[in-house]
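Suppose you are handed a protein chain with no further information: no name, no annotation, nothing but its sequence. What can you learn? This example shows the usual starting point.
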Amino acid sequence: MKYFHENGVILGRLSCKNILIDSNMNAQIEILPSSSMGDQHEVRWWSVERFEGQLSSFSSDIWMLGVTIWQIMNSGKAL
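A reasonable first move is to predict its three-dimensional structure. Written in structure tokens, the prediction is:
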């Protein structure tokens, strides 16, 4: 996240499904285009900014990093 933010990149949609692992166990973040703003499986993970209709920010990226770590620690299980 530090690398992205130092280079002015706001990810906006970080989640476990966007982290790709290669055969050498290197992780790459792939930001996929949004199919719809109201995706039912993602609404519960939205940051406050998204609920208020604002653009993603560095703060919302940190929120999504926390969600992603929570998903990894819980083996991707839903609430």
